Amino acid sequence: MNILILGGGGREHALAWAVMQNPKCDKLIVAPGNAGIAQIAECARLDIEDGGTVVEFAGENAIDLVIIGPEAPLAAGVGDALRDAGFPVFGPSKEAARLEASKAFTKEICDAAQAPTAGYGHFTDAASAKAHVAAQGAPIVVKADGLAAGKGVIIAETVAEAEEAIDDMFGGAFGGAGAEVVIEEFMTGEEASFFLLVDGEDVLPIGTAQDHKRVGEGDTGPNTGGMGAYSPAPVLSDEIAQKALDEIIRPTMSEMVKRGTPYSGVLYAGLMIENGQPRLVEYNVRFGDPECQVLMMRLGAQALDLIHACAEGRLAEAQVTWADDHAMTVVIAAKGYPGAYEKGTVIGGLEGLPEDSFHQMFHAGTAQADGKVVASGGRVLNATARGATLAEAAERAYALVDGVDWPEGFCRRDIGWRAL
Ligand code: AMP
Ligand code: GLY
Question: Is 145 in the pocket of ligand 1 (CB under 6 A)?
């Protein structure tokens, strides 16, 4: 099988690694890829948000399966363009990708499906949004409706903070994403992520994870894209996962089918769990980054079979072979991240690291320059490991971290602290 993966972060390196473990993969191309991906697959430069360009490239390279990593090409309809041209695609249609691209849309689907989620209001002007906040009080959550690179959510501790966020959003702080605003009840509890493959009506759970969004140890400081993750998520017990499936995932996926926009691809459900009851925080229409890294580490080669079955609508006959194992990934970021950071600094020590089914140093933001690996982003490396226990996975992941010689980088030393 010839496979094309779109994207170039740690998520896509992990996907590429898992795909390459499977003998069914004859050729793998990743666009744009990164320095780590280039060591295991061919990397290509193309505009991955332009459907026509991707279709042409897939045709020229006799591609049998396209795996779309990030949300932007999905929201731009690249999946539709490929499907229309007859390519099997892993990733939802533009219409179904609204489950991530529009928070108001997701709330409406939850309402129709009677799925437990935070109470909310949806507003197109600041005055009515503020009136809602005045009536509800704080804490309260203010969200830009559209895609805002993970930055469009403000947890307001006071009414004044909420009003300021409303003014910012309608004032254009998040561009078009903030032209509509969703205001939600603040939920308490513990958060976890549930990953499922979906092809219309069929749903297959493929794992759970928890991540650390704050930059600082003890979960302090500004929000990031994620500083580390581990799988499984202890808070998502079998019983709670089943409840989430029955009360949230299946009813909302049925609602998508009913509306003529069936969902296909990986569904990433962010859940808030309190007193044994899961509620939906949000849907994403792609793998989490870095959650994908721990899921791929645990699934290994079978990930390709599952993804392929999902893309071809054969999930009903697919099965996951579970191992009783744990995985952890530690993000190594450039000093300064999530604020300003330096690019182009040289990363040493990578050649000496162990690389097997228990240890993988996935690259997130790296490039090649003069034969050396250099940092090219904020989140740069993902030290990822698997073990019989989470403690063992953590020990291995931090051993990988300690093998890297990169003075301009940093990581959190406490990934998984809640579970450990
Ligand atoms: P989102 O982009 O919707 O996932 O929001 C980002 C983060 O904000 C989530 O991972 C939660 O930690 C938090 N969050 C979002 N909505 C709520 C809510 N209604 N109540 C409490 N926390 C929330
Ligand atoms: N790690 C969070 C995300 O991918 O959205």
Answer: no
